[in-house]
Design goal:
- By secondary structure, this protein is α+β, with helices and mostly antiparallel strands.
- About 20% of the residues lie in helices and about 35% in strands.
- The chain is built from 12 helices and 36 strands.
- It is globular and about 70 Å long.
Length: about 650
Amino acid sequence: MRILISFALAVALYAQAPNSKQSLSMQRPLDAVISPDGSTVVYVLSRTNWEDNASESDLYLANIASGQNLKLTASRKSSSSPVWSPDSKRIAFLSNRDGKQQIYVMPIGNGEAIQLTNHETGVNMMDWVVPGEIHFTAGEPETAAMKERKQKYGDLAVVEDDYTLSHVWRVKVSDTPKQKAEQLTSGAYHVSYFAISPDGKTLAMVTKKNPDLSTLGSSLEIVEVASKSKRTLAESRNNFGGIRWSPDSKQIAYTTQGETPYTSYANSYVEVRSITDGPARKVSGDVDEQPMIVDWTSRGIFFMARKKTAMAPYVADPSGGGVRELAIDPNWMLTQVSLSKDLRAAAFIGARSGENYEIYTTAVSSWSPTALTQLKQQWASFKPARREVISWKSKDGATIEGVLYKPVDFDPKRKYPLLVVIHGGPTGIDVPYITPDSYYPAEQFVAKGALVLRPNYRGSAGYGAKFRALNVGNLGVGDAWDVLSGIDHLVNLGHVDASRVGSMGWSQGGYISAFLATAHADRFKALSVGAGISNWVTYYVNTDIHPFTRTYLKATPWDDMEIYRKTSPMTYIKQAKAPVLIQHGDNDKRVPPPNAFELYQGLKDVGVPARLVLYKGFGHGINKPKEAMHVMDENLSWFSRHVFGESN
């Protein structure tokens, strides 16, 4: 009888939360673009194709006045990255439905999409500014010399030599499919970003020596389209980004970190300069975060910046006359914002605190969001956890925020198991909005009777440049202070059973969990390390982003081995006690697999239970649904056994 009651209780608990497959099957909004005339929004929703084991996406069309929605694409392959024609009558998008990613064009109203390009290497990104032509970037085809080498010696690569460079092309829009494109740029450089002027005469682009993420330095280049002549407007030891043209085609705005030594934690800012002469000028004021430019309009330069766990919109005077924060409900998170040409309407992906993301429109002059989608219906049969932003003081006095997941029937007098889920980055952030779980089944943990804490530890975005730099030279050590003090805060409130705490995370979150597993093992019943760093020296010599380590640890291993030792989980391996699950893609170039093997072997050598799962063919992310489901189910099983005491 006791077994039957236990089973019935488990079923009732799980009914509150989607299982791993249900969670991964939920649609997510990926993009939203309003038409230039402001009447219609094209948006993108994810789709899980379990049969082909693929995560894909489709295009939808929403009429703002009527609210009517129409699905535009139904291919088994993805359709993404929509852009409007200047007259709002057609949509171009990217799809890999016939193999490599190509541009497709579809009329609004009636008619099928046609494949506009048949580019040998596929299309990377595109824009439709000039009537009748689309500009795009694509990788250069394999040279005759490369083909000859492969035929003679087989398939090999020379590190920091064999690069596929990307350049800008344009193609005429026609009803005849597979048009031949014209190459606008060429040479021994890589185009990482571009924008066409409103008058169609000039191309602005950000170039680098190569696409290697470890290559620092970039140039702002101007190309006269008619002559294809190129000139350098500015150079930087860092990377430019986010180019937008002034309405009169005479100036450009972009983001930059200036000429300070490269860091991934310092603020960037919005800068404006003429394409002919004169110095650059900063126009984003004293906004203490990373700006993301939305558009340059007749009313100024619209940009977004994080503000703790929300997102704030701003408009900057391009002449340097100041920045104004736009008034919206501070409980909203906005992403993927686009503006109509007349600036009357905007479309965005957004959510209010405690709600899920939808596609919205609003008038630009007043905050009046209207949902065009009803993705919340996916949650109708579940009871998602309550999300609450909490704060506490860390060991050094820094104020740390985090998102606490609580059951709907939370009892403040009860002591709950606690599972800590740590985001990556480290400049990522957790926010109090409902999204389907991936990697870590937080909703299922809460349904089983736990609290879940997602700390925005030092280094997280949204809290300003000083906060993002608090873990410089202090990785792992300071991060652990923030996690442990958050646990202590909840224990002191009487909400958490300190003997039943687990921690998990992916990438930088995996590194922090590995650090906790060795340097602070006595605080945890179990941990999970996803694509995590175990030894900074091992990481530094293997990763594809070498500058990251040098800037955060302020040295190479050969300059200061002690800082690499102090911040590496392997230094403390003999202190490890709690069981550790390790998950890693076997082709991960960001955090290469030697980190996983080193931690796994170290744990085995000191007698700590460990399990290593390699996902074959995957890089830093596990982006196919079946393997992603295994990641989630493995974590559910691991913590159910070691924290909840189940014999699964």
